Amino acid sequence: MTTVALAPTRDVRVVRDLSVATFTETFAADNTEEDLAEFLAHDYAEDVLQREIDDPDSVFVLAEVDGVPAGYMKVNVGEAQTEPHDGRYLEVQRIYILAGYKGHGLGTRLMREAFAMARRLGKTRVWLGVWEHNDAAQAFYGKFGFVRTGEHGFQVGDDLQTDWIMEADAA
After folding, report:
1. Residue 47, CA distances (Å) to 41, 42, 142 in order
2. Would you call 141 a catalytic residue per the annotation?
């Protein structure tokens, strides 16, 4: 029997390993080796991730399948958000699932948890950024009512890419 657990985590090594593996699986083919290596070394360094984990306005939720880390979600409120938003908003900064666990409902469970967290915190809007060429992720987010409301830059090494900003009602 497969068991799935979602729980907050502060384990920086698990978060780092999942971050590097999932980002590489998803985006290596669309970035140069140098840009990818620079991004991973900078954005997913243990000290950077530890500061994020220690931020009281951020929460990391780990998804495990039969006790094995399979992915995670990072949500932000307040000053931890990657773009300025007022007090009504919760940001889903990352939902990362290892390729071998995609299609098993983990992303759906994590997204439902994000909406539940937003409601518990009294937030009325949920927002996120998604790469403009990531059609699968955009379709997934659309199932939760997210619509495109803008865009912002996302730096991968020397390559400035465009992320779409998408928002949904938290209700």
Report:
1. 11, 10, 34
2. yes
